[in-house]
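re: ur question from earlier - yeah i can do the single chain one, its not a big deal. heres the input i used so u can compare w yours
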Amino acid sequence: MKKLKIIAIIFLITVNPLAGQNGNTIINKSYKLDSIIKLKKELNSKIQNLRIQIYNGDRTNAELIIKEYIDNFNDTTADIIYETPNYKIWVGNYYTQLEADRNLIKIRKKFSSAFIFRPELIEEMDENQDID
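and the output i got, formated as tokens:
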């Protein structure tokens, strides 16, 4: 009987470490995390970068018009963009069409030729990138 107990103890000691090394990893994550990621992806797919152009022409008039726009609308998102051979004034930074439409109505009261557009994203060059 004593011999049987010793064999059982030796068996348990040798088999126990083998059972603990099955290589399975269990990751506990909240289901809320998946829903937040899904919502974030959905929102990012709907984001639009919309701007309003209020002027297209020479530099002198562009400078006067941007000053007039800033004085009237107290908006600091106005930019003068140079696209050969004209200067353009782009205002606002809208993420929804509704928001852009609302502001266009206000802006057209003063600048009747204003319109909404979606500018192309310009990739900035990396400072370390060589210019040929």
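Residues 123-132 have pLDDT under 50 and may be disordered. not sure if urs matches, ping me
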